[in-house]
Structures are given as structure tokens and as C-alpha cells.
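Format notes (please read before filing issues)

Several people have asked whether sequences and C-alpha cells are stored in separate files. They are not. Every record keeps both together, in the order shown below: the sequence lines, then the C-alpha cell lines. Line labels are part of the format and must not be stripped during preprocessing.
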Amino acid sequence: MKKLNKYTPIDIWDDPYRFTCKEIMEVIGESEAKVLYSSLYKHSPKKKYRTMSLKTVYKDCDTEKYVFELSDGKCIETVFIKRRDGGTACVSTQVGCSVGCIFCESGRNGFVRNLTPSEIVQQVVLLRRKVNRIVFMGMGEPLFNYDNFIKAIHILRDRNGMNFPTDGITVSTVGPVEQLKKLREEHLKIQLTISLHAATQAARNRIIPNMHIYDINDVVNGALSYAERHNRKVVFAYLLLQGINDKPSDVRQLVKWFGGKNVMLNLLEYNPTSNTQIKKPAKQEMAAFKQQLERAGLEVTMRISHGSKIKAACGQLANKYNKIIE
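Then the structure lines:
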């Protein structure tokens, strides 16, 4: 018995950004689907489809922050960082966030809802800019919106549309263990960044309180397993916080985990948020911490933040507009 397609032409023409080209072909035929897909991602569509609306744009030197209003009145923020030959799109996957990192504004109002594949994809499309790198480092935890996040990647890399290269996509995650295992088995060799931020369970529980159910060793081992499975370097992000995760014992644990592994440590500098309890280390302290790790043989970089003046840097994206709308 022939399986009936669960989508209809009305679904396709209402919001085509939520589908892969293959899904559209199954409903409206190959020829028409390819024309539609090409118009969506390679040209400017003649037809007006249901899309997010641009609420406002903030600009500062090489960084732009876009506030998009969704169909239900909720808002998300997307960042574009200009490079010489294009730019990086920092994309959100949720309205709000449930993780609760103490250094991040995105979850200040809690979790509101997941974004659809269409809402994720449109953040790249509606920038109307040359994007040559996509980082899932915006609002929300991507792996807590797993299915929609994965489908959005399939749409972005669809050869009939944007044909975005997989190695140009990075996902930053706090590392929920079950989802990390699922990601390892995907046939998607995307770049993986783990927001680790601690070398002990106690410190991580303090920095990322809502991740206390996951053992820090399981998170590390899951990421290292991903590196082995896909033969690519995994980045561990480490936001240095004075008196919390900057001790000599922390250095020793990081070396124990990552010595001789295909790993890069990315030291982050705290970007000011509404949390006045956080103490930002001095530049010299960060440099000293970095040198200790390098002397032990680890590969270490220090991330340069962009857009802090417009609240577009890491940890500063928020859903403040949702307070007004609700």
C-alpha cells in the first residue's frame, strides 16, 4: 500500500523554509520543487512567504545584531560578524534557554519554546549577506531542540538550495550526554564546541546549575568520542571566572583530560551581563592560565569577543523583548 505524504501543497507554499528539497519534491514534483528551492536560497523569491519579521538592527564596527519577531510575537536575536570575504552568522535555536549559565542573559527569563527548522534557517537567509560560516552559539541550547536543529542543518546543506558546506557549521553545546551520543552517530561532520567552563563537578554545577544531572566526565568523554568517530578536532570553551575555575588544580585536571588528545581549549573572557556577582580576571591572569596549559602541551587560544557594545557578544544575547510582548 502506497504511503501517503504527510504534507500538502498548502504546507509547502505556506512555509517552504521548513522542508528539504526532497520533501517538497514528494508533494509538488521534482521540476517545480527545484525551481522553488532555487528561488528561496539562490535568488530573491517573487512570492511572499510567511517569514519572520525584522524588528531592529544594532551595529557596531564589524558586528551586527538582528532582532527577529516570530509569528507568535516572540523575539530572537541573531548576530552577523563581518569578515574579509563574507561573514559568520551566529544563530539561535530557542526562545530563551533552560540551561541557566550564570554568565549568560539568554536564560534570564527562562525557557519559552523551541524554534522550528524554518525559524532557524530563516535567520541565515534573511540576513541577506554572504555567510560563509554558521555557528549555533546564539540563544538556547541546540541539542535540547535536537530534531529541529538537525533538520535545519540538512536544509542549509541541501545541494538544491544553499548548499552550505558542513565543515563551515559549528554547534556549541553544554553537552547533554544522550543527545551528544546521538550527534556522534549522525552523518554530519559538523564542528563541535563544548561549553565546559569547569574542571570539577562542583564548579560546573555552580557555573551551569541546570546541567548538574550530567557528570562532567561523561560530557568530556562524549566529546572526545565524537572527535575520534569523525576524526576532527573538538573545541572546549572555558570561560575563566576569578576564584571559581582558575586554580592550579583546574589546570592539572584539564591537562589530565586533554593531554595528547585532538582537542583545542578556547579561553573566553567574560562579557558584562546583569550578574554583578561575577568577577572578571585581569588580562595578565588569563595570559598566565593560558601559559600554564601551553607549557603542559595543550593547544590553547583566547577568543576575541565581537559586539559587546551592542550586547551581541557571547553571553549577552537576551529575549528582553518577550517581557514587553507577554
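For reference, the curators noted about this record: The radius of gyration is 20 Å. The chain has eleven helices and twelve strands.
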